Amino acid sequence: MMITLEVSESLTGRGLPGLDVHLVGDEGLLLKAAEESLRYAGASDEAELTIVIADDLHLQQLNRQFLGIDAPTDVLSFPAGEIDPESGRPYLGDVLISYPRAQAQAQADGHPVSDELLLLVVHGILHLLGYNHADRPGRAEMWDAQGVILSRLGCALDPP
User: Fold this and answer.
1) What stretches of the chain adopt beta strand conformation (E)?
2) 99 within 8 A of 51, measured Cβ to Cβ
3) Which CATH class is domain 2-152?
4) Which of 16, 52, 58, 66 has the fewest CB atoms within 10 Å, i.e. is most exposed?
5) Distance between CA atoms of 55 and 58, rounded to whole angstroms?
6) In sequence order, what are the residues at sequence separation of 6 or more whose Cβ sits closer than 8 angstroms to the Cβ of residue 42?
7) pTM for this one?
8) Residues in Cβ contact with 15 at an 8 Å cutoff, skipping those fewer than 6 apart
9) Domain boundaries of the chain, sorted by first residue
10) Partners of 78 in beta bridges
C-alpha cells in the first residue's frame, strides 16, 4: 500500500494540535488508520491513495464545485479507480479532510481532535472503496465498518 499524506499550504506552520504527531513517518496513526481501513475492506496491497489535510475554504470550494453545496464540510472523497501510469498500481483516489471542521467537531463532541481525524480518515477511505451512507442499510454497513476499524486502532469513538 502506498498512502501519501499532505498538509495544505494554508495550514503549514500554524501549529495544529493533535495533527503533528499523527503524521510522523510510517508509524503515524493516520497512516495506520488508512492501512487498517484498506485491509478491512480487502483492498489490494498494491493500492495507492492520497489524504490531504486542508482548511475549510478548500473543502468549501470543492464541495461547491463537485456537489453543488456552498458550505465547508469535514471530509470529501474523490474515487479515481484508475491505474497510476508511473507505478502501475491501482490508484483509489483522494480523501480531503478539513482540519478546522475536525477540530470543531471534536470540541463539540468532547473528544480529542486526533480521534476525530482518525474517524474522518476511515470514513473517507470507506467512501473511496464504495461504502455509502445514503440509505439505512448502507449507513448501518458503513457505521459497523467504521466501528470495527476504529476499535482495532484503539479509538473509542462510536460512529454517528
Assistant:
1) 2-7, 48-54, 75-83, 90-98
2) no
3) alpha beta
4) 66
5) 6
6) none
7) 0.87
8) none
9) 2-152
10) 94
In our burial notation (b when 16+ CB lie closer than 10 A, e otherwise), range 123-159 reads bbbbbbbebebeeeeeeeebbebbeebbeebebebeb
Which of 43, 77, 45, 44 has its CA nearest to residue 59?
77
Closest C-alpha among 93, 54, 94, 92 to residue 74: 54
Q: Could you tell me whether strands 48-54 and 75-83 are parallel, antiparallel, or unpaired per DSSP bridges?
A: unpaired
Residues in Cβ contact with 148 at an 8 Å cutoff, skipping those fewer than 6 apart: 40
Residue listed under C-alpha cell 474517524? 119
| Matching residue, cell 502506498 | 2
Contact 51, 75 (CB under 8 A): no
Burial of 103 (0-12, 13-18, 19+ CB in 10 A): middle
Q: What is the pLDDT of residues 11-63, one digit of tens each?
A: 765 555 555 545 544 448 888 999 999 999 988 888 899 999 898 999 999 99
